[in-house]
Specification:
heterodimer; A: alpha/beta; 4-stranded parallel beta sheet; 3 helices; 7 strands; elongated; B: about 250 residues; alpha/beta; 6-stranded mixed beta sheet; 4-stranded antiparallel beta sheet; 12 strands; globular
Amino acid sequence: MAVTNNYQQADTGTKMIHIGKNTRSTIISKGISAGHGQNTYRGLVRIAKSAVGARNYSQCDSLLLGAQCGAHTFPTLEVGNTTATVEHEASTSKIGEDQLFYLRQRGLSTEDAVGMIVNGFCKQVFNELPLEFAVEAHKLMNISLEGSVG
Amino acid sequence: MLKIKDLHATAGGKAILKGLSLEVKPGEVHAIMGPNGSGKSTLSYVLAGRGGYEITGGSVEYQGKDLLSLSPEERAREGVFLAFQYPVEIPGVSNKYFLKAAYNAQRKHRGEPEMDAGAFLKFVKEKAKLVEMDPAFLNRSVNEGFSGGEKKRNEILQLAVLEPKLSILDETDSGLDIDALKIVANGINKMRGPKRAFVVVTHYQRLLDYIVPDFVHVLSGGRIVKSGGKMLAQQLEKEGYGWIETEGAPA
């Protein structure tokens, strides 16, 4: 998970190298860009010749807050045998005026509304974290994005 | 409760509301009907405070306050509720979490203590029964993957939970089959009371068979051109809008 705000740039990524037989892996990357922030994800999935029947699933989602930020995804897949299954999915979405207005119409402040949408976006990752850590991550996220909208 | 006086509004430089006046008192149900493009949805959005519209004239008074000077969330906390024509999906946010946040935002505004998770769950399950909604929906993400009818029912669930003073229903009947329509209408009827007012925006008379309005207004060309009782809706269903548009054309 990566968050950029103001003029920050983050260039992050994951390497997953499969050597053994029938090995499995999943990569979930969530990038959030706010202000003038730029988020870049570089992923390498290498399946060695020896990794017969290996499986990998990669998912890379980006969320944009505002019109000045950006998200970039560079996946690299190197597959050395014909029995491996490698999947890559990517999505980019923007917090829409409609979503914000919907939550505000129910009485939430703009900041709370943004926080709710962002935390919903990250839920898949937060759910994997130990509880104490997830609570920290949740709060940290809200602080990082303070004042980024409105 | 709500006094709209000579309201003018534009969207993208185009005049949509051109001198609309309407008064709603507590306990009343007003239906707003009108052809496509007459300004029905604009009226709903302007009352709820959505961006993208410019008020070029007139005033809206709500419980003695200038409604137009309040932000959307302030209006919501004061008891203005808009049931959306197209409810928005919020992925990853559970319905019950969203409802609790909205409910507590209002309680806080009224200076009441927040309701804790356990008590709220009990409360919201009662409300779900009102709209005959499976409690499983409370654990799903807000509107994500809901069918059209389920989304509309979810709007009414929110309405039941938040207990607004003024509810604006923006074409709540669109996309509903007859059974879903009855459930939604029943949910609304149970919410009716002497302190609550409803503004029901609709294309068709069908919804008004179930939610019987006290007044029916016809909106055309950005203003109310005719008002009457519930009989007016039936007449419209039979004869269309054509005759009113010619009769009510501004001199």
